[in-house]
Amino acid sequence: MASTSTSAPALLSQHVHDGKSHLLLCASGSVATIKIPNIITALSHHPRLSIRLILTAPAAHFLAGQAAEQPTLSSIRDLPNVDGVYLDEDEWAEPWKRGGKILHIELRRWADVMVVAPLSANTLAKMAGGLCDNLLLSTMRAWDTTGLIDGLRATPDAAAEQADGRAVSVTARKVIVVAPAMNTAMWSHPVTKQHMKLLEGEWNVENGGWIQILRPVEKELACGDTGSGAMADWKSIVKVIEEGLGLKSSGST
């Protein structure tokens, strides 16, 4: 069951300038979804961080209280810094009328960074093809890839310069970080290679784009196969989030 209210889009607008860093943490249908609580808990010591989650319907099945490492969504909602959990049905909880807020647009405006961990084979394929048939994909498809709508954001280095009274010269578009996770055969499939070629090419932050990729690692997967395809270690994902938002790492004093 979702933990948001029908007024969620309006509430998001009120919190855009709340003085906090905004993490839009998302999960699609992969077993690695069970690492979401670890990521949130590791970020719990940051007092000026606000986290909102988007879960696809398949992802939500992995967090239904069936094991200690798979708590319920209501339990996750109570974790520190979590200010909202969104499912597909929250998008149009009430019939829309002119002037009403649209959830996937408001989430995009609110977010400083969007992290999709895990990014399943299905969601990767839809992302590469521009499909947007759920809340997560609609938010990705509505992302401001140019920086002309939501404006450019100061990078963490630039923010530090500003705090020191120095001139700020480094700005960037908001980034979507993706951590693919899938069966080894899925990862090595020629279709996946084509999708990744797009994400690692024109769309990649290193080439002036808006996508940062955390490639899968090789290990024994939950299905029993051994090989590449497992999601990057959740601790490395936490580190990327902290670096991207200019937060001190868990190991900092």
TrEMBL record:
GO terms for cellular component: phosphopantothenoylcysteine decarboxylase complex. Keywords: Coenzyme A biosynthesis. InterPro entries: Flavin_trans-like (IPR036551), Flavoprotein (IPR003382). Belongs to the HFCD (homooligomeric flavin containing Cys decarboxylase) superfamily. This is Phosphopantothenoylcysteine decarboxylase. Pfam families: Flavoprotein. Residues 22-242 form the Flavoprotein domain. PANTHER family: HOMO-OLIGOMERIC FLAVIN CONTAINING CYS DECARBOXYLASE FAMILY, PHOSPHOPANTOTHENOYLCYSTEINE DECARBOXYLASE. It comes from Rhizodiscina lignyota. The lineage of its organism: Eukaryota, Fungi, Dikarya, Ascomycota, Pezizomycotina. One of its GO terms (molecular function) is FMN binding. One of its GO terms (biological process) is coenzyme A biosynthetic process.
